[in-house]
Amino acid sequence: MLCPSDNARTTVDISGTGRNDHPRLAVAAVGSYAFCAGSLVAPLGTSDNDKRTNSGFADYGFHRGTRDITDGTSNTLAAGESAYCNDGRYQNVSVANTGAWNCWTISLRHGSTFRTTVNPLNTLPAKGAFTPAGWTMTSAFGSRHSGGANFLFADGSVRFLKDSTSLPIYRALSTRDAGEVISSDSY
Question: For the chain, first and last CA: distance in Å?
Answer without folding.
Answer: 25
